[in-house]
Amino acid sequence: MAEVETGRRPRLLRAVGGAVVVVVLAALTRYLEQNVPVFTKGTWLGGIAKSVEYPVYAILLGLLGNAVLAGLGVRDRLAAGFRTEFFIKTGLVLLGASINFAVVVKAAGPAIAQAFLLIALVFGFTWWLGGKLGLDSKLRALLSSAVSICGVSAAIAAAGAVQAKREQLAYTASLVIIFALPSIFVLPLLVDALGLSTAVAGAWIGGNIDTTAAVSAAGALVGEEALQIATIVKTTQNALLGVVAVALTAYFALKVERTGDAKVSGRALWERFPKFVLGFLAASVIATVFLESGGDRSVITTVNDLRTLFLILAFVSIGLEFRVAPLREAGWKPIGVFAGATVFNLAVGLGLASVLFAGFGG
Description:
This protein is an all-alpha fold. It is about 80% helix and about 0% strand. Residues about 1-5 have low confidence and may be disordered.
């Protein structure tokens, strides 16, 4: 018995030590996110710093911590404290509170139609292109979800549904960030060059940029109406996150990983289904009812702040758990797939936005 207790204590201490590392890096992430724009204001870096989101700082600090801990030979010992899955699922459940279905309904048909069509077309194209280049099915699912729905959040949901490797999720999250940052500035410039109306511009931005914060930044550069439409379109896409998770769970259980004539039971599907998606949907419904019944919006703001905290902890943990070897094996092909899918998304998204939002508004 004493030997068992002796063994448990070091494991607990290592887990606590790992958790402390995550919390410290998360606090540093928050500090950088809030203060770097202030420190660089008025300089050529000011505009860039203002647009950098917390996932960038969190993942970079996580990677830096990963390298330091690996160099000291203690990374694997502290890994029990890097609770990526717990942080991610908690953050995504809280994300549901920001998805107000009443707002989506107010946009009527255009936003819903664009979301369904864009997700179906872009997901299908990305899946097909990934197959042509011989990518692993799980990585294809992550890339397809990220490009077609809502970036990192969709990739996280897909990772839970298909049981992807953490390295694949980290790689996908990195690609989302790399492509989203320049799009904040590029898309508003293209809007001016193409002479798009504010409604069409907002729908295009909302349907193409892969993170909600980046959508808000780009929409604000175009104008208030564009920002509102962009938010509604992105919100609609976010609301479809659970639908895609269910579809991926069923597809991988019934086809990709099915062997022989073995039947897959409903229980097996339920065991594979990422349960946090139900929490995500429940939080969305509760928030919608709460706000529509006159609830204090500051409550939702507090929930969103808490969500951000958990996602910061998750992104830091992703960086700490990152392993280079599997990505070296992946090579350039995932980047090619993501880039090709992004171009396809831009073209199809512009076409849909131009048709569905033509003459929209007053």
